[in-house]
Design a protein that fits this description.
Blueprint (H helix, E strand, L loop, with lengths): L4 H22 L7 H10 L3 H11 L2 H9 L7 H13 L1 H5 L2 H10 L1
Helix pairs in contact: 1-7, 3-5, 4-7
Keywords: Signal
Pfam families: DUF2388
InterPro entries: CHP02448
Length: 107
């Protein structure tokens, strides 16, 4: 991994790790209890951030195709994720599409 990609991966991991943990918790039996439901509904009140997280996480398959094809295959979900990342993060604006796709795969 090159030196530019490491800080970008760290930024992406810190941005998306809470969403990944929350979604995995919601899938457990504890997440479906009455207490868990009210807690998860309170936590999901900031839906714009959650929607952005979902866009990026949904792009993993497209990112894998993009990386494997050395940029020849560009899916719509990857394009949406790249746009979202660049709107949210100044470091992402400086990264290439391939660097961002690799960072998405590292999530």
């Amino acid at each position: 991994m090159n030196r530019t990609l490491l800080p970008l991966c760290a930024v992406l991991l810190t941005a998306f790790a809470p969403a990944a943990l929350a979604s995995s918790f919601a899938g457990t039996s504890a997440g479906t209890s009455a207490g868990g439901s009210s807690a998860s509904s309170d936590a999901s009140s900031d839906s714009s951030g959650d929607d952005e997280d979902k866009i990026v996480l949904a792009a993993r398959d497209d990112a894998a195709s993009f990386v494997a094809s050395d940029g020849a295959i560009r899916g719509a979900r990857l394009e949406a994720a790249l746009r979202t990342l660049r709107e949210r993060d100044a470091e992402a604006r400086q990264a290439s599409d391939l660097e961002l796709a690799r960072a998405i795969l590292a999530l």
